[in-house]
Each structure stands twice: as structure tokens, then as C-alpha cells.
Amino acid sequence: MSQEDPRILELRAMRDKVHQGGGKARVDAQHAKGKLTARERIALLIDKGTFHELEPYVTHQGDELGFAKDHIPGDGVVTGYGKIDGRPVYLYAQDFTVYGGTMSDMVSRKICRLMDLALRNGAPLVGLIDSGGARIQEGVKSLGGYAEIFRRNARYSGCIPQISVMLGPCAGGAAYSPAITDVIIMVKNHSYMFLTGPDVIKAVTGEVVDAETLGGCETHMSISGTSHFAAESDEHALAMTRDLLSFFPANNVENPPTVPCSDPSDRMDEELNSIVPLDGMEPYVMHEVVERIVDEGSWREFQPTWACNALTGLARMGGQTVGIVGQEPSVMAGVVDIDAADKICRFVRTCDCFNIPILTLIDSPGFLPGVDQEHRGIIRHGAKVLYAYAEASVPKVSIVTRKAYGGAYVVMSSKYLGTDVTYAWPSAEIAVMGAEGAVNILFKKQIEAAADKVAEAKRLAEDYRKRFNNPYFAAASGYIDDIIEPRETRMKVIEAFKALRDKSSPTPPRKHGNMPV
């Protein structure tokens, strides 16, 4: 039996060293926090046996201060490619066991090369974030490294899906990279993002706050609107990532994948016919409408605890990915405010980037009135929604379920804003404003002259509502394509998107538009 080549033995020893990361003590410390290591995370995310690592022997190259004495293979990040559900994906996982996963010049080079490969090959990019920030020992080199990553995040936006999975800290300028990506998933109690940490804030402003309150998962899910999904653990976050990628195409020139569907496309839900109350002031739950019309179990809501008067999310209808936007009449009557406008605009543009058809469910009395909203720029923020819908070239179907008043009707994917098919339920009220407001303006003198002003106003409002605030008046003018029974919604939407599958909507030559921000 021949003796084994010592060079092979050396390679195996080096591979073992690579897989040890920062060493047993640091790995144990990571586990003690309830967190997985970079390689353990990759093993859960990627199909078994498909991960191929790139540049595992890279180490840091410069440290003028002499603090970073250990040259650990990989240098704080694991990069490579593999498959998720048999589809190619590129990913990097910051390794907190190696110098806290901090950003060095070589870490940046590894990530940037991976991003370039993802773009060239038209495959999604996933970043598993767990980092202490810039590697101070390398000074401006680490900052330059961040800038290289940010530039690629921006340039590749809309070309390939980019998902950031926040599995630990992401502080300082590092937080800008996830903010540019398409989807952010955070882990409760383990991940946080902020530009200036609690110590800096205390020193500058005197405010005392902990990291979780300042930039934890709940903060970014419910207050800032920065994060899209909340996970209970590393394992949950990685499972969510796998699931979410199944709704997206690999790149901007492909269509989203179609999956087998056992839910009949012509299924009619009789409960929908009675879901909208006869009293226009009584709320109902739009989420229930969504659940009843999409493929069973396919609804994935984005940002469910932020701007709850609006809902956005991905689902499947007939096995096809669909983006759904709507108002939630059970929250603030579905009125559109600044946060809701931002939420809707961002989601519409995400769908348009990746050829995902958009269904809009409309029930809104208008934009939120008030001095605070006007002074903070509700015009500018509302214009974002208008701009996003007008610019979107994907198939668009809208359904007015109840109220569609004024500007909220116009900007929410109205027919002449470029929506391909517009339906209305019999309960739809499409008008400049509600009947009560309209008659108070149009018949002010008549109401004031009446013996019973309240009764006269009520009579006029009821007459106005019957004549104008109904879907038939709008349909007679061509603003609605058809009035449908609510139970027919699933079938009508699926067939509409089938008919629009080959839609072509060329745009005028330009560098890019100038959306209000």
C-alpha cells in the first residue's frame, strides 16, 4: 500500500483549520448566545451537499497597529455558492468568531467578488449578517470596503434579488447595505441595526437607551419600518429565507417560478359575498379577503406590524407569484398616511423589479388629514405611490371593494394610471369624496334653509350616494372594466393575469426617472 501524499494531508489539515473559524472557545461563546456559527447557518440554508466555498484561505493583509496578530483563514466571512430548492444562489456569511465578523479590506474583496459573480450569473444574493462593524485596526481601508459593497448593492438593485438576514449586530455605516437590499429578515432579541450606538447617543444627546430598544427587531418591524420579517431564531430566519426565495425569479429577465397548485383556480368562496358590511362605516378585515382568494397557505405578508392601515405581501394564485397591496379598513379605516404610502411604494417597486404581477385591493376614504401630515410631506410621500404605480410595467389588476375616494382612488392603481384590468365589487363607492361631504358643499344653502337641517342633509346624502357613489356610475364612464361578485374574485384575477402574461410596456428612452423621495 503506497504512502499517502503529504501534500494531500497538508490540504486536509488546512481545510480542518478553515472549518474551525475563530477556534473552539469563540464557537462556544457564539453558541452560548443562542446563535449558530457562519458555517452552521450555511448548512441550514443551502441544499445539502451543494455549497462550494470561495477563497477560504484569504487572511487579513494589513494591520499597522499590530492588534490583529492571528491570521485566521477566511478572515471573518465565508463566501460561496450553492442551491436552494435546486436553484443557484450566491451567499456570504459573516463569521463573528473571527474578529467579531468585522469588515476588513480582504473581507470586502471577498464579498464584492461574490456579488459580481452573482450578477454575472443572474442568481440571487443572500447576506447572513453578524458583524461588529468596521475593523478599526485597518482604519480607512475598512470604510473603503463598505463603500465598494454599497456601490454594488445599488448598481445590482433590480437586477438580482438581494436578501439580508440579520443574525447579529449591524452597527454604524454597515447598516446601509441591508437597507439597500430588497428584503430584510431580523431575529428577535439577537439582531439589531443602528447608525450610532447607545454609548454614542448617551454621550451626544444624553439619552439612555439599550441596543434592543434602539435598533432591535421589534423596533425595526413596528416603528422604523426598516425590516420586513421577524424570526424567532437563526433556524427560523434561514427557513424563511428559503421559503421567500421560492416566490422570486433568479433575476430581472426571468419570470417568477410557477409551482403546482392543488387549490382550484375557479374556487368560489361564498363568504366573500357577505364580508363587506351594508353599513359603510362598519369595518371588516381585508386580510381575510386576501386569505380567501389566494392559494391556500401561500400568503406571506411584508412588514405586518408597521403601517398596519396598509397591507403588502406575496402570495400565489393558481401557482403563480403575485404581489398584493391593499388597505386595511379595520385599522384607521384604511386611510393612507405617510408610512402607509412609503410601505406601498417600496413594495410596488420591488414587484416591478422582478416581474411579479400586482393585485391591488382598494378600500380607502382618502389620505390622512392633519397639520402634522401636511407639514411632514404627505403630498411628497403620496406622490411616491402614484409614481410607483405609473412606472410599474408588470401586469396590474385592481379591485375596488368599497371606498375609493379622491386622491386615494387615483394613486391606488386606478385604470388611467396604467392598470390593465380594473374590477369593482357591488359595494364599491367611487367618488371625489363621501356623500355627506359632497352634499355639504353642493347643497349648503339648501340644507341651511331647511326646517330640519339634519334630516335634509341625510336625505340629500342618501340620494347622492344612490346616484353617484356606486360602481355603476363609474363603469358607465369606463373607469371600471367590470363589476363582479366578490366570490368570483379569485377566478377573475387568475384569468386576468393569464391574459396579461405576455404584456409589453416599453418606456421612453431615459437614464432614469426622478421619483419624489
Structure in words:
With 517 residues, the chain is of the alpha/beta class. The protein is 38% helix and 17% strand. It folds into 3 domains: 6-245, Alpha-Beta Complex (2-enoyl-CoA Hydratase, Chain A, domain 1), CATH 3.90.226.10; 270-432 and 470-499, 2-enoyl-CoA Hydratase, Chain A, domain 1, CATH 3.90.226.10; 435-468, no CATH class. It has helices spanning 6-19, 24-32, 38-45, 105-120, 140-156, 176-180, 198-205, 211-215, 217-222, 234-245, 286-293, 338-353, 371-376, 378-391, 406-411, 435-442, 444-449, 453-467, 471-476, 489-499, and strands spanning 52-54, 77-84, 87-94, 125-129, 162-166, 169-171, 183-187, 192-194, 229-231, 300-302, 310-317, 320-327, 358-364, 396-405, 421-424, 429-431, 482-483. Strands 10, 11, 12, 13, 14, 15, 16 and 17 form an 8-stranded mixed beta sheet that branches. It has a 7-stranded mixed beta sheet with strand order 1-2-3-4-5-7-9, with helices on both faces. Strand 10 (300-302) and strand 11 form a beta hairpin. Helix 12 runs parallel beside helix 14. The radius of gyration is 27 Å and the shape is elongated.
